[in-house]
Amino acid sequence: MKKFLSLLSCLTFLSLSIQSISPAQATDLNLIGPGGRLHGADISRWQHPNDKAIDFQKMHDAGLSFVMIKASDTRDDADRLAVKYLKMDRTGAQEAGIYTGFYHYALLPDVTSPSAVARDARVQAQKVVWRIASLGGYNEKDLPIALDLENNCVRVSSTRVCKKYATRSAATLWAKTFLKTVKEKTGRTPFIYSSPHFLETALVRDKELSTYPLWIAQYAIDPAKEGAKPNVKAAGCFVHSWTTAQCAANWTVWQYTSCGIAPKYGVPGNRLDLNVFSGTPEKFQSLLTGTWLPDPADFMPQGETTTMTITSVFASTTNKNAVISVEVKRPDNSPVVTGSVKYYFNSTNQVVPKVVQTIARETSGSWKLSIAGIPAGTWIGNVGFKDASGTHAEIKQPLVLTIEQGPTPTPAPTKKPSTKPATDSCRNQIKN
Fold first, then answer.
1. Which end of the chain has fewer CB atoms at under 10 Å, N or C?
2. Which H, E and C letters describe the chain, residue by residue?
């Protein structure tokens, strides 16, 4: 019996010892990346082709110390795909001893008033807060979230060509409001991710912006070469909020390639974004200070009551699209955070026409719905709001559309598709 107890005691001690040196607790921060820097990656659903999992232990063993994971997106369809892999990737990375950070891909609103711009930024920040709350908040292995702002197009044509860009002042106000909201809520200072060209041309130089760590994306520069740095161009450097007096960039993370050799790091597919950190392990660890544990109010609600207002309707003739503008709000009169709208034809109609519905997001909780192909007649139906995440309750509002017969459009000649020569987007990039 004594021998059994002694053996049991030894096994227990051994078990505890093994736990104490688990990969998650034995994370190393070695300066073994290009240029003697900490090496990292960033991932999204594109690193999960055919739902394949990432081998994070292989990623760790290949020398990567951190990975930035896409956590949320302005667009609801892309947001759902981000959620699909978020928890799995965070858990897998941390268990392998890799620090994790997150990012939100943002699209700017098609509004001009400063109050409307700021309101949209706060709504998108709310989505981020809910998403981090769903993970249980920040833990000791989490870097702060980053704002991925690289597109200032706010309106596109039917051929997906940009028709309108946000002004520099509007884009700057939006970015500052978003970053400030996230920081105030979570206590962690978020990053901002962008290219030096975007920072120079789409944002106003702003002292407040420069207080946020910069994650800069610039390729075709080898970080392993002596003196290599981002933010350079043919003549001098890009000038923006993070540009120093010495014509350099005060960057924290540098995404130096989108053409990393994915299998080398345990990632399915061919390509992987790779990054380096600018400072020492001590500087890196300073970004990990403080945890954020969400309160019950920080979690995403379920089936929250909504109200819908149809703000305008244009419906005339068969040769023109019917256009419906819709606003949907939460109980506190703020815009809904997720969801979209659609027109539903009632089954009481003699036939249900086949139409094409195009949704343009103007700002949070506000859409312009364009319907092409409605035949002449009076059509009974409903404008409906639906949120696939279940955050906000579904709602419908009756709307009758009366369409008169218009002139028959002259059929346009079918254009032969032009074939573009194949290009290698990785031709000038680093293939680590």
1. N
2. CHHHHHHHHHHHHHHHHHHHCCCCCCCCCCCCECCCECEEEEECHHHCHHHCCCCHHHHHHCCCCEEEEEEEECCHHHHHHHHHHHHHHHHHHHHCCCEEEEEEECCCCCCCCHHHHHHHHHHHHHHHHHHHHHCCCECCCEEEEEEECCCCEEEECCCCCEEEECCHHHHHHHHHHHHHHHHHHHCCCCEEEECHHHHHHHCCCCCCHHHCCEEEECCCCCCCCCCCCCCECCCCECCCCCECCCCCECCCEEEEEEEEEHHHHCCCCCEEEEEEECCCHHHHHHCCCCCECCCHHHCCCCCECCEEEEEEEECCECCCCEEEEEEEECCCCCECCCCEEEEEECCCCCCCCCCEEEEEEEECCEEEEEEECCCCEEEEEEEEEECCCCCECCEEEEEEEEEECCCCCCCCCCCCCCCCCCCCCCCCCCCC
Q: Which amino acid does the sequence have at 14? A: L
Q: What is the pLDDT along the chain (432 residues), one digit of tens a residue?
A: 333 334 334 433 333 333 333 333 334 798 999 999 999 999 999 999 999 999 999 999 999 999 999 999 999 999 999 999 999 999 999 999 999 999 999 999 999 999 999 999 999 999 999 999 999 999 999 999 999 999 999 999 878 899 999 999 999 999 999 999 999 999 999 999 999 999 999 999 999 999 999 999 999 999 999 999 999 998 899 999 999 999 999 999 999 999 999 999 999 989 999 999 999 999 999 999 878 899 988 999 999 999 999 999 999 999 999 999 999 999 999 999 999 999 999 999 989 999 999 999 999 999 999 999 999 999 999 999 999 999 999 999 999 999 999 988 777 777 777 777 777 889 889 999
Domains of the chain: residue spans and CATH: 27-298 (3.20.20.80), 307-403 (2.60.40.10)
Chain Cα centroid distance, residue 101: 13
